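Revision sheet: structure tokens.
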Amino acid sequence: MSTQEEPVKSIVLVGFMGCGKTTIGRALEKRLGYAFVDTDDLIVAKAGMRIPEIFERGGETLFRQLEGAVLQELSAPGAPRRILSTGGGIVTRRRNRSLLREMGFVVWLQAPVDTILERTSRNRERPLLQTGNPRETIEHLLAERQPLYHAAADLEVDTSGLDADEIACGILESARYHFAAK
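Predicted:
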């Protein structure tokens, strides 16, 4: 008998802000019955302040440290299965990418720049987009992060042409094959 615990078989959603991680995560929660967890919500709770305040006090460095700590807690041995929605930059740290893959089936949700811009333009809670040219910022960050999302992902899904239920159904079917093969 193995002394090693079975790895958590969660569904982990990664991707740039505005690609639908929360919306699709909630649709997966309804279909699968696993708890939905958003790392940004846990970071806010842990820090006792909103994300813009975290950035004001310690910049992106503090935010990424908190994010890494939250992910470490979520990946602890014996953690329950869940649907995990992550922040758009969680993949920028190598350790985070490893933890995400250990936790379960990683799905990279994607959308074109115009779609991301439209979905994020009215939200002032996104410090990285509070620039003179949000489109340019999105394009730059996407170019930087795309190889990292790709390296972490078991499945890549474009969210721009389908509704959340269609996407959730496809993810669940792919996850069943993924977990059956393990």
